[in-house]
UniProtKB/TrEMBL annotation:
Domain (NAD(P)-binding): residue spans on this chain: 7-192
Highest taxon of source: Bacteria
Source organism of this protein record: Evansella cellulosilytica (strain ATCC 21833 / DSM 2522 / FERM P-1141 / JCM 9156 / N-4) (Bacillus cellulosilyticus)
InterPro entries in alphabetical order: NAD(P)-bd_dom, NAD(P)-bd_dom_sf
Name by which UniProt lists this protein: NAD-dependent epimerase/dehydratase
Length: 216
């Protein structure tokens, strides 16, 4: 199985590409913005494709033509303005969903925000509300498709070493989770078709990742 990782140069994306390349039966195709980012992925033996997420749909669809699944891990980051939030977290996500349709790729995993319900937008701090709104509408767009989707809502992301144990559920208490463990959860979802059509919140917990995903 070949997986197009959109946002591969991000911190979750790099962990994900590493794990996919180490797995049996899966390989990563890293979608990156420029050639200077390629060295990391080539050192892992991963294929790379240069596509700017702010381009039109066609280049994304072309990147997806030979893959079996797409994982959207891209994000505008905490230090950008509302314009980048719109262009990456909303428009970039929607274009990737539409590109999946054009490329006939059914399996799609979306890395979202912890809570993207309508109420969460209204209660988010002013600086964070545009991001939550972007994720809300991107998630909703995906739900309305016939793609085999999974939507993952991770808690506060950290760069701590992953422990391989999580808590997942439709609604869990707010908490944190290492990016490394988010990447491990993505791999488990790719391996487990029972996660198709599901979405869940995700934080560090006491249950081994594979068991937690099996019990969804």
């Amino acid at each position: 199985m070949k997986i197009l990782v959109v946002g591969a140069n991000g911190q979750i994306g790099k962990h994900l590409v590493t794990f996919l390349q180490q797995s049996e039966g899966m390989q990563a195709k890293a979608m990156i913005r420029n050639e200077q980012q390629a060295d990391f992925f080539e050192s892992k033996g991963a294929e790379t494709v240069i596509v700017d997420l702010e381009q039109d749909i066609d280049p994304i669809a072309n990147a997806a033509k030979d893959v079996d699944a797409i994982v959207f891990t891209a994000g505008s980051g905490p230090h950008t303005g509302k314009d980048k939030t719109i262009m990456v977290d909303l428009d970039g996500a929607v274009k990737t969903i539409e590109a999946a349709k054009l490329a006939n790729v059914k399996r799609f995993i979306m890395i979202s925000s912890f809570d993207t319900r309508r109420d969460a937008i209204q209660h988010a701090p002013a600086s964070f509300a545009p991001y939550v709104a972007a994720k809300h509408y991107a998630d909703d767009w995906l739900r309305r498709t016939d793609l085999d989707y999974t939507i993952i809502h991770p808690g506060g992301l950290t760069n701590e070493k992953g422990i391989g144990h999580v808590t997942v559920g439709e609604e869990v208490e707010r908490g944190e989770i290492p990016r490394e463990d988010v990447a491990r959860v993505i791999v488990n979802c790719l391996e487990n078709n029972a996660t198709i059509g599901k979405e869940f919140q995700l934080i560090t917990g006491s249950t081994p990742i594979n068991k937690a995903i099996d019990e969804l």
